[in-house]
Structure formats: C-alpha cells, structure tokens
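Support request from a user on the community tier.

User writes: "When I paste my structure tokens into the form, the page sometimes reloads and wipes my input. The last time it worked, I copied everything first. Here is what I submitted, just in case something in the input itself triggers the reload:"
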C-alpha cells in the first residue's frame, strides 16, 4: 500500500513540476535532414554537422516542485561548437507537434546567421540581436515565431513568485522573447545575469563557457537512448544502445594526482584499539593483470579519471607510434618534399607545413596473381572487355590505306564552286581507338586498416585484393594508371608508398609490392592528396582521375584530428579540381556520409557498406566513372 501511495505521489509531483506534452513530441532523428539542409542553405557553416546535444547542469534556478521531484537537474540546450550544431534529441515542451517542429526550424535559422560585431556581448543580448536579425532576414517566419514565443512564455514561472531583483530580469527576458527587435536595456549588455529558466528559443554558449565549473559535469551524449521507458514521466525513449552508440558516448574527464602509497585502508582490531594502526596499501591504480573486459567497464562510467603513474601495468591497448629501424623500413626515393596545409581557423594556406617522404619497398619478390583471386580476375576482365576500344574506320585522314569515297565527292563538289587549294583529306584507316585517360589510385594504409571486417579478412587484406583486381583489369584495357599508398606520423613524416608509376608496366614485381603493403600510423590525407595531384597533373591526358580509397576520416597525432583535418582535405580537393583533376573517394567507413559530402561534394564519393565486396566493386565503379555514370 505504501509503495502504491508513493508511486501516485511521485507521479503527481513529477507531472506538476514538469509540463511536458509527450503526445506532441518531435525527435531530432526524424527532422535532422531537413534541419541540416536548411541550416546550410541559409548560410550556416557547411562543415558543421547536426547532432544531438548532451544534457548539462541546469544553469538557472529550478522551481520548488522541481526540487521536490528531483527533476530537471540537467537539461538539453542548443549551441554551436567548432564541429556541430547541437540540438535537443527530442522536443516535447509545447502542446502542439507543429510548434515543436517549428522550434527545431527556428534554431537552425538562428544558428545559420553570422553577426559581425566587435563588441563583447552578454549571451542573452547576443541572442536578442541574432533573433532580431533573423526575423528581419526571414519576415515570412514572423507569424510562426510569434506563436512559438507566446507558447514559450506560457511555460515560464509567474512573476509574482519571484524576488524583486529576479522579477526585473525575468520581465526583460520575456520582452526579448516576445519582441526581440526592440532594443534591450543595458542589463544584459554587461554583467553575469542568467534567466530564471532556460529559454528553448535561444542558443546558449558552449556549456564549459556558460557557467564555469557548474556546467562541466556533462551528461552522457546518448542519455535519452539508454533510459528505460517510463510511462509515469510520459517518456517514450529507447532502452538500449547499440555498440556504435556506446562507443561514441561523451563523458566528463578529470585529472587527479596518483596516490602516493601513504594513504589507504586503515584496519583496526578491537583487541588492540590503543596500539598503532596497521596500514594496508590498497591503492589499486595499477593492475598487475590484464583486464580483458576493460572496454565494457569503461562504457559504464560517466566520469573517467586519469593520472600519471610511474609504474606501467599490462596494457590492453596497442599503439603504433614509432618508426621502424632504417634497415627494416622502406627505401626513400628522394629527399622529403614540402607541401602547404590549410588552417581553417585562420583561413590561411600555411606554406611548407607537411613533409612527404616518397618510399618504395626494398625487399620485394615477384609474385603471380594470388590463386584465390584468379577466378574473380577473369570475371572482371570479361566485364572490362566492353571498355576496350574497338577497331573502327577513321575517316578524313590525309594519308591512309583506302580512298574515302564520301570525302572525295565532297572535295570535288567544293572545288568546283570555289578555288580552295587546301590539302584534301581523302583517305580512311581501319585501326583501334583509344581512351585518353590517366588514373592514380591512392590507398589509405593507416593503422585503422588493421581491423577485421569478418572472420577471415582485415581491411588491409580487402584493400590489397582491390588493388590486385583493379590493376589487373586496367592492364587489359590499356588505360594508363598508377598505384600509391599513404600513411603518416605527424606533419613531419607523411609516408607515400610507390606501388606502380605511370611509366612502369604492370608485372609480377608490382604485384609483389601490393602483397607487401602493411598497415601503420595515421591518415594525413590532405598532404597525400596534394602530392598525388602533383604527380597526376603532369600526365598528358584529356581526363585525369584521382581515386582515393580509404576506411575513415582524416586524422593524425597532432591537431589534425577532427575539423582541422577535414577542412585541410577539403581544401586539397579544391586544389586538385583547379588543376583539372577529377577526385573521387571510395570508403568503407559507415559514418562517411556525415563528412564526405563536405569534402568531396554530394556526387564525389561512394560508401561501400560491406567491405568484403570492395575488391569486386572497385573495378566496376571505375568503369562507371570513366563512362561518366558515377
């Protein structure tokens, strides 16, 4: 009976404290594409993704009922960072589904506007100016904004319940919400004021900047996906996370000093109460046994604490950071070649930032096409026979094997009407045509390719098989092609492996180099593309194709991770296009659709969902590209 009464009480308090409308809920997953397209189309940064925000500590004051119910301690706000526009995973604040949907649209419009101001503004005043500029820019949204503003003000606390100083702040916040085009007072131009409640119509600063340490306690990014369905709270959320979602969880991190070994468990025995306490060192920060379940345990932590430990334990993680000894490494073909790198933060192409090291395998044996690929190679060759130029008559030749009767008749007719003394082209020849193509395939050989795609093959094995079939097929069409691989260890050492040059014939020696490729290091893609483009641009061909084969996004040891690497690679692709090249990316990264359109354009890439299919699909994809179908 007590439990039942407690459940009723909890339901009553929770519903009274939180005015939600689950029947009108709109999920970001259902509208993400629309929001993303609108954000970029209206002028938002095309390099930013639209993602779910994570819950942060409440920056305002909770109501008395919310404190009793223990709810709204953390909420989902909206903000921009250097890589994404973060929006709440679901919105059910307003009573109508259309209003909740319009709220997502409004936030995208607000975020797309870039105000140019040298003033240091309070974030509330910044939102007022941004809202005003957005409404002036898109007057057709004014009525819908008015409906949103009225509905949001209805949710706010009553003014009479607030202290006089807080009432003044809240009154001005309401005026800004209702009519942001009116100039505000000086209250929010300086100082450190926050509204009594969050304002869902506004973008807040990054949580770490909004209220200092109070907001550094970041909630799990996928929290809404891991909760059990709770009908009492009116929530209808998924109860399980996929492995991929758990892997991408965002947690709070903190540093701590390593225990000095002088503090630990103090054990007392009652019979020796008045004797010295016995010290037992149980600071188990270093485990003397490997933990095979470390990853799953880490997934359960919201806060991960790290410290510096002098003693190293048996690690479960493997890093490949050092270069091999010279006698075991590939042979450098020349001195390092310097290339620039794009710094998107400053908008400057910084000169001589990256060092390309051309390499060739020094211990390679000639090998035949692997037996397990011979059947597949025959199938691909038969499909590529249609690409081999057929023998045909070439008419209008100055010299040839036969007289072209049609050309002769046209020549005699023209001569009788004029005094044309130009040398006639009266012959024809029967010969094979040619496709004026040059293709450079650049393969990612980073350490990530060492992962397994199934029980039998790793990513590097799939790439190796793809290179074998691709090269074998092109050698039968007569198209000119070259093969290279790349990896990197910071900007000072970008490894560029030569497998086959344009001038080399495809033979068993080249097959031996393909067999010898190994995964290692990282993926500084921009520098590798620039060097590949410099090689390809020297080829005298009508169409020059730069085919990039990778399994993930650009990254490296230094600041190349994340947005920096993506923007530099994008700039390298622009440079290649300006040289008249046709870049195209083939990836097996399932998340490729999130960043590849920004780098290569909507039609400049393809995602292979099943990596094992890559060896057979790559030659077919090349055939479509050369025929203008991809």
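"...and here is what came back when it finally went through:"
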């Amino acid at each position: 009976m007590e439990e039942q009464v407690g459940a009723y009480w909890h339901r009553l308090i929770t519903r009274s404290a939180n005015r939600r409308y689950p029947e009108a809920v709109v999920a970001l997953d259902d509208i993400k594409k629309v929001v993303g397209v609108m954000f970029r189309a209206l002028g938002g940064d095309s390099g930013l993704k639209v993602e779910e925000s994570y819950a942060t500590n409440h920056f305002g004051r909770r109501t008395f009922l919310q404190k009793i119910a223990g709810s709204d301690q953390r909420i989902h706000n909206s903000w921009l960072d250097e890589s994404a526009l973060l929006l709440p995973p679901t919105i059910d604040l307003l009573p109508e589904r259309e209003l909740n949907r319009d709220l997502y649209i409004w936030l995208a419009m607000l975020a797309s506007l870039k105000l140019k101001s040298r003033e240091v503004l309070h974030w509330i005043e910044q939102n007022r100016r941004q809202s005003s500029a957005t409404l002036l820019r898109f007057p057709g949204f004014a009525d819908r904004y008015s409906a949103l503003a009225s509905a949001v003000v209805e949710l706010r606390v009553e003014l009479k319940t607030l202290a006089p100083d807080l009432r003044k702040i809240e009154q001005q916040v309401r005026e800004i919400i209702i009519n942001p085009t009116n100039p505000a007072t000086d209250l929010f131009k300086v100082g450190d004021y926050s509204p009594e409640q969050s304002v869902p119509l506004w973008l807040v600063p990054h949580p770490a900047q909004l209220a200092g340490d109070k907001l550094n306690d970041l909630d799990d990014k996928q929290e809404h996906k891991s909760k059990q369905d709770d009908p009492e709270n009116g929530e209808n959320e998924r109860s399980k996370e996929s492995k991929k979602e758990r892997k991408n969880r965002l947690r709070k991190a903190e540093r701590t000093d390593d225990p000095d070994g002088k503090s630990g468990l103090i054990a007392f025995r009652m019979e020796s109460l008045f004797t010295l306490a016995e010290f037992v060192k149980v600071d188990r920060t270093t485990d003397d046994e490997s933990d095979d379940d470390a990853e799953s345990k880490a997934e359960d932590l919201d806060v991960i604490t790290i410290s510096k430990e002098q003693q190293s334990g048996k690690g479960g993680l493997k890093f490949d950071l050092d270069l091999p000894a010279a006698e075991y490494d590939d042979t450098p073909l020349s001195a390092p070649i310097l290339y620039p790198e794009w710094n998107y933060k400053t908008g400057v192409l910084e000169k001589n930032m990256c060092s390309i090291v051309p390499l060739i395998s020094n211990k390679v044996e000639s090998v035949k096409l692997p037996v397990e690929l011979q059947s597949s190679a025959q199938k691909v060759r038969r499909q590529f026979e249609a690409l081999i130029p057929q023998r045909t008559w070439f008419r209008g030749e100055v010299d040839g094997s036969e007289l072209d009767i049609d050309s002769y008749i046209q020549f005699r007719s023209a001569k009788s009407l004029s005094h044309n003394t130009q040398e006639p082209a009266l012959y024809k020849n029967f010969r094979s045509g040619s496709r004026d193509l040059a293709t450079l395939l650049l393969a990612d050989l980073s350490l990530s390719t060492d992962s397994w795609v199934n029980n039998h093959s790793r990513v590097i094995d799939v790439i190796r098989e793809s290179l074998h079939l691709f090269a074998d097929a092109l050698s039968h069409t007569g198209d000119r092609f070259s093969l290279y691989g790349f990896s990197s260890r910071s900007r000072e050492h970008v490894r560029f492996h030569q497998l086959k040059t344009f001038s080399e014939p495809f033979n068993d020696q080249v097959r031996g180099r393909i067999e010898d490729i190994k995964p290692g290091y990282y993926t500084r893609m921009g520098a590798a593309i620039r060097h590949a483009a410099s090689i390809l641009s020297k080829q005298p061909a009508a169409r020059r194709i730069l085919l990039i084969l990778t399994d993930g996004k650009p990254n490296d040891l230094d600041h190349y991770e994340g947005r920096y690497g993506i923007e530099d690679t994008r700039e390298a692709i622009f440079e290649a296009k300006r040289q008249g090249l046709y870049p195209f990316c083939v990836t097996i990264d399932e998340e490729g659709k999130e960043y590849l359109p920004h780098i290569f354009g909507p039609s400049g890439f393809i995602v292979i969902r099943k990596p094992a299919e890559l060896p057979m699909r790559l030659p077919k994809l090349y055939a479509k590209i050369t025929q203008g179908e991809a």
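Agent notes: The reload is a front-end session timeout and is unrelated to the input. Residues 459-477 form the longest helix (19 residues). The chain has 19 helices and 23 strands. Escalated to web team.
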